[in-house]
Amino acid sequence: MQLLIKTESDMLKLGKALASVLQSGDVVCLHGVLGAGKTTLVRGVARGKGYQQRVTSPTFNLMNIYQGRDTIYHFDFYRLGCGDLSDLGLEDYLEKDGLCLIEWPEVGQEYMPAEAMHIYIELVDEDYERERLVRVEALGQKYGERLKELEQIVDTGG
What are the pLDDT digits (tens) for 90-136? Predict the structure, then answer.
C-alpha cells in the first residue's frame, strides 16, 4: 500500500487507522530519515489505542512505554550499535503482549522478527515542509491480513 500524506494531521489519522487493525503481539518497523514523521505516526497509533498523554521519540532512553487499550513499546535504535541491542533484551519485548513499534529497525536487523509490518516514510523533494510518501509492507500472513484491513479503511487516493 502506498499513500501520499499531506499534513501532520493526516499522519496522525494514518496512525489511528493503523491502531484499529493492530493487535497485541504485533511488530511494526518504522523506516525513514530524521524528521520524516515516524514518531508522529506512533503518536497516532497511541491515540488510536486510547493513550492521551505525551508521546515523544525515545532516542535517548531507547524505549518508551504507553499504556492504552494495549501496551505500546516504542523503541528508537537511532543512537545504538548492533551490539548494544543484545543488552536491551529486545527479544523479551517482542514476545510480550503489547505492540512493538520500532524506529530505525535496520540498526538491529538481525534481531527483527521475520514477520512484521514495515512502514517506509519518505520526504517528497527532500522538503520537511511538504508531503510524505508512505509505503506499508507486510511480511507474513498475519501482517498481510492486517494490511488488507488497513487498505479497507484508509483512502489511498486511488
Answer: 677 777 789 999 999 988 788 888 999 999 999 987 766 778 999 99
pTM over 0.85: yes
pLDDT digits (tens, 9 = 90+) for 66-103: 998 999 999 888 877 655 666 666 677 777 789 999 99
The answer to whether 3 touches 154, Cβ cutoff 8 Å, is: yes
Quote the longest CA-to-CA distance of the chain. 45
Q: Which fold has domain 2-152?
A: Rossmann fold (3.40.50)
Per-domain boundaries in the chain:
2-152
- For 86-140, strand residue ranges (E) read 99-103, 116-123, 132-139
Of 109, 137, 110, 108, give the one whose Cα is nearest residue 121.
137
- Lay out the sheet containing 71-76: strands in order across: 2-5, 132-139, 116-123, 27-31, 99-103, 71-76, 63-67
